[in-house]
Amino acid sequence: MTRFTGMLIFTLAIVWLMSSTLYSQTTQLIKGDTNICFTLPKARIIIKQSYKVKEQAEVIQLCDMERTIYDSITKNNEDIISNQAELINDGKEVQKLKDQQIKEEKQKTELANKETRKQKAGKIVAIVVGTAVAILEAVLFITTR
């Protein structure tokens, strides 16, 4: 609340109080100035109420400040939540990519294992055939001699 608004509320409160039948006043002209006169008890009541109006204006101003701070904190928290949601989504994407890489590596490993088994089988066949040919040649050599 601005100072102008506080003064406006204060002025309106005074005008309202002065126009009330409970706070009737008299006006007197003293040295060319118009003065509003109250009895002492009525003036005390008006002063107390004017202080209450000022106090309420200050409370309203404090509430406005608190609301501004609250809004700022709320926006800050919303930004943090939004950033965390983005991080979670990014983490899920990274996890999907890692899972895909693991799957591809497993497929490569299976293909490499198949190729290794084929090579082992080929070596065994070559050894068996080579041994059989060597034995056959040895038998032929011994029988032809």
Give a verbal description of the structure.
With 145 residues, this protein is mainly α. The protein is built from 2 helices and 2 strands; from the N terminus they run αββα. It has a two-stranded antiparallel sheet with strand order 1-2. The longest helix has 104 residues. The model has no long low-confidence stretch (mean pLDDT 85).
Walk me through the topology.
Blueprint: H1 3-19, E1 26-30, E2 33-37, H2 40-143
Antiparallel strand pairs: 1-2
Helix pairs in contact: 1-2
Strand content of the residues, in percent? 5-15%
Stretches where pLDDT is under 50 for at least 5 consecutive residues are none
- General form: rod-shaped
Main sheet: which strands, in order across? Answer: 1-2
Q: Please, how many helices? A: 2
- Report the end-to-end length measured between terminal Cα atoms: 126 Å
Q: Averaged pLDDT, please?
A: 85
Order of helices and strands: HEEH
Question: What characterizes the major β-sheet?
Answer: 2 strands, antiparallel
The amount of helix comes to over 70%
**What's the β-strand tally?**
2
Gyration radius, rounded: 50 Å
Structural class by secondary-structure content: mainly alpha
What descriptive keywords fit this protein?
83% helix; two-stranded antiparallel sheet; 2 strands
Concise synopsis of the structure shown:
The chain has 145 residues and is mainly α. The protein has helices at residues 3-19, 40-143, and strands at 26-30, 33-37. It has two helices and two strands; from the N terminus they run αββα.
